[in-house]
Structure prediction request, 105 residues.
Amino acid sequence: MSRRPSIRRRWDPVTAFVSLEIAQSRGRDAVTGHLASIPEVLEVHTITGSADLMVRVVARSNGDLQRVIDDVVRDPAVLRTATVIALDTPVARRTGPLVRAAAGI
Prediction:
């Protein structure tokens, strides 16, 4: 009996974090507006350090991730990017522990 991979495992999305260095003269609002127009962009954060923005994106595959990155860099104010791919999510997004801690529960 052969084992076939489950459909769910074959179609798990790729999650990646893309750091962006942007042209300061153009301003952050124009770039974030461009990023907001890309459906695969889930979050954009202003950060400290050598990059200006951290962007969480999803894609259907590594090849599709290249398409998403190409969309991100289409804005001429994006000067440089660096991308890391998430391999696993051992602690998924959660708010319960924070809410309980804030409430003193």
